[in-house]
Design brief:
The complex is a heterodimer. Chain A is mostly helical. Helices cover 74% and strands 1% of the residues of chain A. By secondary structure, chain B is α/β, with parallel strands linked by helices. Chain B is built from 11 helices and 12 strands. The chains are: A mainly alpha, B alpha/beta.
């Protein structure tokens, strides 16, 4: 029975994918430049969400809720911006961002896993600290003299119509994110590490009895996941925007959690959800740019949230989506 | 190990919370008034006028930050430059984190015995009117707050943003090669932003009847619309991708994101907002041809001096608007264009050009 459901889901997925491609083709024939612009905007808005969702996913698969992604984004963006502007090197800035993300992941693990603080509170501490630290140390006279990361064309691929601009003429961290989606997918579902990670998130007691050090692995995973959020922060400051401004993460860390749940805690699912969120933003921009419909921009801006609530509620009802069994619980070796 | 951890984390959290508390209200007074002075004023302010030497100026920002490189920052500069001309004046600011705190933040300065309270932004309008009515002894200056009925102790500093936008748009209409000009804006919930946009579009059409104008407002509410550079950048790119070659970024940090994005595109131009953003957003130098300015600095500073002199009356005060110098783009703006801009400027001044026809 489970097999049949799975097959049906797969078929539905492929049908949906084909429908989307046909629609894109249809719109591209109708108006090339606008379709390209909307899809390029979609991919762009999805990158940060995908990184945040991967961070949250690795944590939750190991049984640790991370609502501090917002703070990890913000403080990493600050570190990336400050170091890049001091050294004049975007690469050094990126390293600093990832480093800050790792550090914050480690602090979160220290609180949530080591000290067994309530995980929601631990995440909130990260968010508040990040907002406070960045506001306090922000120096508005600082800027990126060398500009931000710019697009790299992937040879002849970049000259293709539509996909050339949308997929093959992107800045470096976007490519890196796409590669990381594949890496995280393989690691989570095809490696020993992934199996152990999922085990400590589902049944840490059982994992312990077969010799997995639950505490150590959770520490490791939450720290590594922080690195992904750190990359997100570096992306925000050095690639998406090109400067730092206070509270610039603007709630995207929380959005990333919605994306993660929507995408069933899988990298590709999360990316699809992130693309959907990005698409609604780009679409509502386009509605305004064309001044086709006279609907308030706030209305279309609200749509992805409504869809998320509906999807999460529905899948909860049907029972096809469930949290890792040990999510949010501290593990006491006994 | 665990005890070390505990100590380290406790320290970190205290530090984090401490900076969270300081960060939102960092004290950058222009003069360091002594503790005794402030306590004496708060005791006396309850029933009588301020003592002559003491002149406390409090500024409450909108949800944008006091270092947003645009609107709020220019009001703060106005407050400090006004205070510099007044003997014994001290200035301080409070940043509003959420729109529900407007009244509370104004009250903080009232409790502190401020002589003048400046509230920055359309959003604070109602809270300011209420506070002004309840505290007739304190003077209020409301930036971007049009006064429907005059309250004797509340001066609204307003600007004709449409004229400023019109001038910038007129220049853009002449400079565009693709005949598409874009605008990336804060929110349509704030009227001055709408005036900037309408003026900009009408100005572009005035000098270039073939021009196509594409404009976007941020889809979020007041709390995020001016602090979202990521959206600003992504949206600017979306407009560039469909042929716009000159983009107006108007909306605090959101608009700054748009400017910086345009700077990465060869040959594209951008226009800043509120004051000359050449000085505040150096990342935008490759594209920043001008800025649609409203002289908040001078407006606030003049009103403060008037307040000190006792000549401040209620009602509306019209501040100056103009466009900023062209800086690196001096050579791109031809004499012919300059002549047209002069014509437009004169037309706007004598009323023969209406920047916002219905």
């Amino acid at each position: 029975m489970g097999q049949v459901v799975k097959l049906q889901q797969k078929r539905l997925l492929y049908m949906g994918l084909i429908a989307v491609l046909v629609l894109i083709w249809f719109f591209y024939r109708a108006n090339g430049p606008q379709t390209t612009a909307v899809l390029a905007g979609t991919v762009r808005a999805a990158t940060l969400l995908a990184l945040g969702a991967m961070c949250g996913m690795i944590g939750e698969r190991s049984g640790v809720v991370n609502i501090g992604i917002e703070g990890q984004f913000l403080l990493s963006a600050f570190a990336a911006f400050t170091i890049a502007s001091m050294t004049g090197s975007l690469f050094m800035g990126t390293i600093a961002g990832v480093g800050m993300g790792l550090l914050m992941g480690w602090v979160l693990a220290g609180m949530a896993v080591g000290l067994k603080v309530d995980q929601i509170i631990a995440g909130t501490v990260l968010n508040i600290s990040a907002l406070g630290l960045t506001s306090f140390f922000y120096d508005r006279s600082r800027s990126l003299g060398m500009g931000k990361y710019t697009n790299i064309d992937l040879g002849p691929l970049a000259d293709l119509p539509l996909v050339g601009t949308v997929l093959f003429s992107r800045p470096p961290l976007t490519y890196l994110t796409m590669a990381l989606l594949v890496v995280v997918h393989i690691a989570l579902f095809r490696s020993v590490w992934g199996m152990r990670t999922r085990a400590i998130g589902e049944h840490p007691g059982a994992a312990d009895t077969v010799g997995i050090d639950v505490i150590k692995l959770r520490y490791f995973n939450v720290t590594i996941a922080g690195g992904l959020a750190g990359l997100g922060g570096a992306y925000l400051a050095l690639e998406a925007v090109g400067t730092f401004s206070r509270a610039m993460s603007g709630g995207r860390g929380f959005l990333a959690l919605a994306v993660m749940i929507f995408g069933r805690r899988t990298p590709f699912g999360a990316y699809a959800a992130a693309l959907f969120f990005g698409f609604t933003t780009a679409l509502q921009n386009q509605f305004q740019l064309n001044s086709t419909f006279d609907i308030p921009p706030q209305f279309v801006g609200m749509l992805p949230f409504v869809v998320t609530i509906v999807v999460v509620a529905l899948s909860g009802l049907i029972g096809s989506m469930r949290d890792p069994a040990a999510l949010g619980q501290t593990y006491e070796k006994g | 190990m665990t005890s070390m951890w505990r100590r380290f984390l406790a320290l970190l959290m205290v530090f984090g919370l401490l900076t969270a508390a300081c960060g939102s209200d960092s004290d950058s007074s222009s003069s360091s008034s002594s503790e005794s002075a402030s306590s004496s004023s708060s005791s006396s302010s309850a029933e009588e006028e301020e003592p002559a030497e003491e002149f406390k100026i409090g500024l409450v920002t909108d949800t944008g930050k006091v270092d947003d490189k645009a609107f709020n920052q220019s009001a703060w500069e106005g407050a400090t430059s006004g205070a510099a001309q007044i003997e014994g004046a001290t200035t301080d600011y409070i940043e509003t984190e959420e729109s529900k705190d407007y009244a509370n933040n104004i009250q903080l300065f009232l409790d502190d015995g401020a002589s003048v309270i400046i509230t920055v932004g359309f959003g604070l309008g109602e809270a300011t009117i209420e506070a002004a009515k309840a505290n007739p002894d304190v003077l209020f200056i409301g930036v971007d707050q049009f006064q429907g009925e005059a309250i004797p102790n509340l001066a609204g500093l307003v600007f004709e943003e449409a004229k400023s936008g019109f001038l910038a748009g007129a220049l853009a209409g002449m400079l565009t090669k693709s005949n598409i000009v874009g605008a990336v804006l804060g929110t349509d919930l704030v009227p001055p932003v709408v005036f900037f946009k309408e003026g900009w579009e009408n100005g572009a059409r005035y000098t270039n009847p073939d021009v196509q104008t594409i404009s976007t407002y941020h889809p979020g509410g007041l709390d995020v619309a001016f602090g979202d550079p990521e959206w600003g950048a992504t949206t600017a790119r979306q407009a560039l991708d469909q042929g716009a070659d000159i983009i107006f970024g108007a909306g605090g940090a959101t608009g700054n994101g748009a400017l910086i994005e345009v700077a990465t595109e060869d040959g594209a131009l951008c226009v800043g907002v509120d004051w000359d953003q050449w000085g505040t957003v150096p990342e935008a130098h490759p594209c920043l041809v001008t800025s649609a300015m409203k002289d908040i600095v001078k407006g606030v500073s003049d009103l403060l001096v008037a307040a000190k002199a006792g000549t401040l009356t209620g009602g509306n005060f019209l501040g100056d608007v103009d466009i900023a110098p062209y800086h690196d783009f001096e050579s791109m703006v031809t004499d012919e264009m300059r002549a047209t801009i002069e014509e437009v400027r004169a037309g706007l001044a004598d009323g023969s050009i209406n920047p916002m026809p219905e």
